[in-house]
Design brief:
Largest sheet: 2 strands, antiparallel
CATH topology: Nucleotidyltransferase, domain 5
Strand content: 15-25%
Number of strands: 4
Length: 143
């Protein structure tokens, strides 16, 4: 059996290397509208009095002038061609290796279901979140 259709779904996600907390939403497309919805929902998820620093690449919907970034979030753009600096790249790799590679999806709902299972397994394992997302410089900044 092989995949015959060309439909996609996308996880917008963020994780805290210090606490192991994660937040993700699944969207049918990647664009400024989806990014705005994600930032608005993430803003509510951040504990009062805390601030979220979100590392983003230079994709158009991450840097759009149309975005209204909530006051408790700062977007930190990466230099061009440097995905290795973004800990979430390792999260996407883990999700693919452990849940999403070499499988066929029946339809869009099946894709969303499998993405949800993958994200929830990752985000519910605080030790895993910390181990994948931790960078030595993070601890130096918090000390």
């Amino acid at each position: 059996m092989r995949q015959q259709q060309f439909i996609s779904a996308y996880i917008y996600g963020a994780s805290c290397a210090l606490t192991g907390d994660s937040f993700g939403l699944i969207f049918p497309e990647t664009n400024t509208k989806s990014m705005q919805i994600y930032l608005d929902e993430l803003s509510v998820h951040i504990d009062p009095g805390r601030h979220g620093a979100i590392i983003v690449d230079n994709t158009g919907w991450h840097t759009s002038k149309e975005l209204c970034v909530p006051d408790n979030i700062t977007l930190i753009p990466l230099p061009p061609y440097s995905p290795e600096l973004n800990p979430m790249e390792q999260v996407w790799q883990w999700l693919k290796q452990n849940h999403l590679s070499n499988i066929c999806f029946n339809n869009y709902d099946d894709i969303v279901d499998k993405l949800s299972v993958a994200w929830n397994e990752f985000s519910n394992n605080i030790k895993l979140v910390k181990s994948i997302c931790c960078r030595q410089w993070i601890y130096k900044l918090t000390m």
